[in-house]
Design brief:
The protein is an alpha+beta fold. It is 14% helix and 28% strand. It has a six-stranded antiparallel beta barrel with strand order 1-4-3-2-5-6. The two termini are 34 Å apart.
């Protein structure tokens, strides 16, 4: 695992079907292993899968830090900036974690750095401003593919999933 989100509770890394937009496929009209636990989860406050559009100036500043003296951001690789098997970066509003980004990459079609994230419903409306905390705490881990770096705040705007309007309207119905 890698990224800015760190928790001692392994359950903080789990996602429910509702978090990922699959809740409409869950049916409780039959018995199955785990039904009671899943049913209890269905009554909890859920999170929502969103796309985050990263602020271009903040992304460019993070990239520029690689060419400057002094502290630098975690390297942002193209097209996919995922540097861990399981990336978890904190999505923040002020100093509060409101979600987790699980993937980050560049879309040539949209000329944007995008992330897939799961955020609290209160912050899931398209247009909502959040911050992605990019990079691992404490200067990075000892992983060979993680260079020393500082955590870098990148402003982001909540957008729908899928990001493509055509995919949302033509492919994802029901």
């Amino acid at each position: 695992m890698g990224g800015s989100f760190v928790s001692a509770d392994v359950e903080d890394y789990y996602f429910t079907p509702w978090d990922l937009g699959y809740g409409r496929f869950v049916k409780f009209d039959h018995d199955f292993i785990g039904r009671d636990a899943l049913e209890a989860t269905s009554r909890e406050q859920q999170r929502t899968e969103v796309t985050l559009t990263l602020d271009r100036d903040d992304v460019l500043a993070a990239i520029a830090s690689q060419f400057s003296d002094g502290e630098r951001a975690k390297f942002i690789e193209f097209p996919s900036a995922v540097y861990a098997m399981h990336p978890y970066d904190a999505v923040m509003v002020d100093d509060e974690i409101v979600g987790i980004s699980t993937w980050i990459g560049y879309s040539s079609n949209y000329r944007e750095m995008l992330t897939l994230a799961v955020v609290d419903e209160a912050h899931s409306e398209p247009g909502t401003q959040v911050t992605l905390l990019w990079g691992e705490p404490d200067g990075g881990t000892a992983k060979l593919n993680v260079e020393p770096h500082i955590q870098w705040e990148i402003r982001a705007t909540v957008a729908p999933v899928p990001y493509s309007r055509v995919a949302r309207e033509a492919y994802r119905t029901g």
